[in-house]
Write a structure and sequence with these properties.
mainly alpha, Arc Repressor Mutant, subunit A, 70% helix, globular
């Protein structure tokens, strides 16, 4: 888990209904990249 993953987790903890597009704009990634990272975090049991 890197710094971007930590930022994504923090944003989701603050507001779990936040869109991947919105998260991407904040952390500097595309919607697809955020989606892949969230799926990876779920698969690893971090979410």
């Amino acid at each position: 888990m890197d710094e971007i993953d930590r930022k994504i987790l923090k944003l989701l903890k603050e507001n779990a209904r936040r869109s991947y597009v919105e998260i991407g704009k904040i952390v500097g990634l595309t919607e697809g990249a955020v989606r892949r990272r969230v799926k990876k975090l779920i698969d690893e049991g971090r979410i």
